[in-house]
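Priority: low. Protein: Amidohydrolase. Input follows.
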Amino acid sequence: MPRFKVTQWRAVSLIAAGTLALAVATPAQAAPAAKATDPTKLANRLVKAVTVDHINRHLIALQRIAETNDGIRAASTPGHEASAQYIADKLTAAGYLVRIQNFEFPFTQTLAETATETSPTARTLSPVVMQYSPNTPEGGVTAPLTAVPGLATDATPGCEPADFTGSYTGTIVLIQRGSCTFQQKHDNAVAVGAVGVLVYNNAEVPTDPVNGRLTDAASGRIPTAGIPRGEGEALAADVAAGPVTVHLELRVLSETRTTHNVIAETRGGRADNVVMSGAHLDSVTEGPGINDNGSGSAAQLELALQLADQKVTNKVRFAWWSAEEFGLLGSQYYVSQLSFEQQLDIALYLNFDMIASPNYARFVYDGDDSDAVGSGPGPYGSAQIEDVFTQYLDGKGLTHEGTDFDGRSDYGPFIAVGIPSGGLFTGAEVRKTEAEVALFGGTAGVPFDSCYHQACDNLGNINRTALGQNAAAIAWAIGLFATDTSAVNGNGSALARQARRAAVQAKGFTAHRVQVGAPGRATA
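Result:
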């Protein structure tokens, strides 16, 4: 493991196994309010200074780190260690106060993920093991395939014990997705003696995979995976015609490991009115993660380097989260270590995850829930953050759409404790619509990022146009907020702090917004 070289952080100490301790800045400790300053001056300087070429150099570094570390940069792996070292070294050289925050997490890595129909038809399947599925023995299992009637004849396939008529003991059960959780289908299969479950998709596109999860590790009883609808329908037709045999091997390494967040903040600025920006640095175990989320990490790094010599009114704190791909664990840990007063010292949180998808859209997190989709509005101030991004994009003649706070990225833990949040996103595995093509160009019916969570998420998976546009918007927003957060939280005075406290307590934000388990994994 590389040894991180960090500067001394005044008013911050490391305690107990690398836990980050942030000093509380009371109103008496805070610097006096600065004279009114035009916030656009710093914002404009940063927009000009942050260039795609500079960001791309950081992306090249992350690609080469992955190349020399088994092609991945997943949390706790040598590729992530080297990535974190690269970030920390750059920040330290620029004069930042840098700290490493260690935490333990449940690491998983897929070792085997194969399924084949061996008779009567030789057919190779494309399973995706569900999170919390138990392993098959090494070498896999071969068993008869049985099928539960699908949506064509049953609106709730595999959701009731009565769906399992006949003998299922010792078989691998084929069940269509829909109407209830994967866990419920799994439990019903366990009850009739099945040795495995294949859940096939109900999506319109026959090749779309199922990225699913069971409830938790204790709930997984038999190996369970998802397969595309086209493969499932072909298997169901074979079962209807006669006996079918399937070979299934699903094995995942699971162990407790230690990883770390990299956190840096400006030396100047008010410590009781911190502007915080975050991007997860880790990749999945399947690839180098250059768009997801090298793009956000590299853009944030370049912005931090360009901000280093600038005078700020409000302290700016940057975080490169780890273990996001295992369920937002780095950001969750960070927030869990903050007292309520320390939470109040954070004026707002900005999140940048996947900002250069090849078939991109320009999505801005919907702080006011004006789209009326999904989880509802963010905490007070989130709408104003959204306005900063949308007004900048409007000024550049760039179309944009809202995107829901759906809990799939690191804003989740901040929203859960009432911290105003926002950010940018260019899309992941969802397919682009004709309406979105009309707004952003690109190709309809193709995912925003066809290499999402795959080995092909490499340097060639970056859309430089999207990267440049989003990096400029990020620079603009952080430049504005580093100078003035009054649009989000008033003047940042003690009265404003008290108002924010009251708003949090009255609103009663809870962790329901934080998705448990790996982002992108569905439960049903």
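The chain has two domains: 12-20+41-96+266-512, 110-254. Residues 1-34, 504-518 have pLDDT under 50 and may be disordered.
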